[in-house]
Design goal:
The structure holds 2 protein chains of 2 kinds. By secondary structure, chain A is mostly helical. Helix content of chain A is 34%, strand content 5%. In chain A, helix 1 packs across helix 3. Chain A is globular, with a radius of gyration of 12 Å. Classes of the chains: A mainly alpha, B alpha+beta.
Chain lengths: 73, 318
């Protein structure tokens, strides 16, 4: 995640410039409500995704989605 | 803007406050620390004043400062009185911290420092082990807890600032420390003796409960159930049991932390990550990226589904 020194996980792709990307996980269009659903529970949209669902409210998910879409290279 | 994002979610208790005692075994330490800080500042001010007088004072002042009387008073009498007073006061103040004054009514726990985590072995009044856990200690409020501190490899040091002072864990020796929390809450700690590698990522968590809550917590420490499922199957087939124990399953490895209750811990990785499915999966797949050189290898062989099946299982171990 850009702006975070630690930890720097490499299991998933780097999120740098995420806002410029056309696809989420190479499968879904990168649009806000869909991204928020994906952030909240990736497996519900991409069943074999390796990304776990971390308990969060719908508001938190859409805040995260908004931040992700603000990331530009 | 870059920032580090260590430890638990929400800025709660990390880094632990060092001048905010929460029990009778940390109050004297804080009092003494403030006395030393203030006293030291005063002495420093006196030294600066003397230096100023020596450089810019009138000839008469300089003569007096350099005279025999000033040397005897400032150089001998003053330090002798202050230091003797400080010694006596310090010993009196900290005598209550001594772990030699045990009555037998204390809760007993043995904690063994490893590189770079902590074994937590609860004991009954006779010193017999009753429960094993790792990286987190649960205690009831208002009751002194006698910690028997040991080390498995190199010197570590147990430090939960709000509950007590530091006590080294020395291989071949058992050191004892008393701690007590007067209010319920989560108290963070940190290994305070450099032990190589990710020493800076060797944290600890103490959770203090009201007595009824503590009894409930203690009663809920049961072996894992059910002992089956895809997650457990992956755990066993991937070799995790070589290092980890999950009571109630065939996994009884001792090289790494006991995972029977890992899902209910406040943190993962020994105090350094909040505990949620995201950090759990991230730790399993690549703990080396989070805590480099720790003794658990990265596991890159899982598919996404396998990783999450295993993660779901670990999260369920409450």
């Amino acid at each position: 995640m850009p702006g975070v020194d630690w930890p720097k996980g490499t299991i998933g792709p780097s999120l740098s410039g995420f806002g410029d990307r056309a696809l989420i996980a190479g499968k879904l269009p990168n649009k806000a409500p869909l991204l928020a659903d994906f952030v909240r529970d990736a497996r519900s949209l991409v069943p074999d995704s390796g990304m776990p669902a971390v308990p969060m409210t719908a508001n938190e998910a859409s805040d995260i989605a908004a931040w992700l879409q603000s990331l530009r290279d | 803007m870059t920032r580090a994002a260590p430890a638990s979610a929400g800025g709660d208790g990390w880094p632990p406050a060092v001048f905010d005692p929460a029990g009778p075994y940390s109050e004297p330490v804080t009092t003494l620390a403030w006395a030393l800080v203030i006293g030291g500042a005063l002495v420093f001010a006196i030294v600066l004043a003397a230096l100023w007088a020596a450089l810019y004072g009138s000839t008469k002042l300089k003569a007096r400062l350099g005279g025999e009387k000033a040397i005897w008073i400032l150089g001998f009498a003053f330090p002798a009185v202050v230091l003797t007073g400080l010694l006596v006061w310090g010993l009196m103040l900290t005598s209550s911290l001594s772990a030699t004054r045990v009555t037998g009514a204390e809760m007993r726990v043995k904690i063994i420092g490893e590189m770079w985590w902590w074994r937590v072995h609860y004991q009954d009044a006779n010193g017999r082990e009753t429960l094993r856990d790792a990286n987190e200690l649960h205690i009831p409020v208002g009751k002194p807890v006698l910690l028997e501190l040991e080390a498995a490899d190199v010197i570590h040091s147990f430090w939960v600032p709000r509950l007590g002072g530091k006590m080294d864990m020395i291989p071949g020796r058992t050191n004892r420390l008393l701690i007590q929390a007067d209010k319920p809450g989560v108290y963070k700690g940190q290994c305070a003796e450099y032990c190589g590698g990710p020493h800076a990522l060797m944290g600890f968590v103490v959770v203090a409960h009201e007595p009824e809550d503590f009894a409930r917590w203690r009663a809920s420490r049961r072996p894992a159930w059910p002992a089956s499922g895809a997650g457990l199957g992956l755990f066993l087939s991937s070799g995790c049991a070589a290092c980890h124990t999950i009571r109630g399953t065939p996994a009884n490895g001792l090289a790494g932390p006991d995972l029977t209750h890992v899902g209910s811990r406040q943190t993962l990785g020994a105090g350094i990550l909040p505990n949620n499915p995201g950090t759990m999966a991230g730790w399993i797949a690549d703990s080396q990226g989070i805590k480099p050189a720790n003794r658990m290898p990265a596991y890159h062989q899982f598919s996404g589904e396998e990783l999450l099946a295993l993660t779901d299982y670990m999260v369920s171990l409450k």
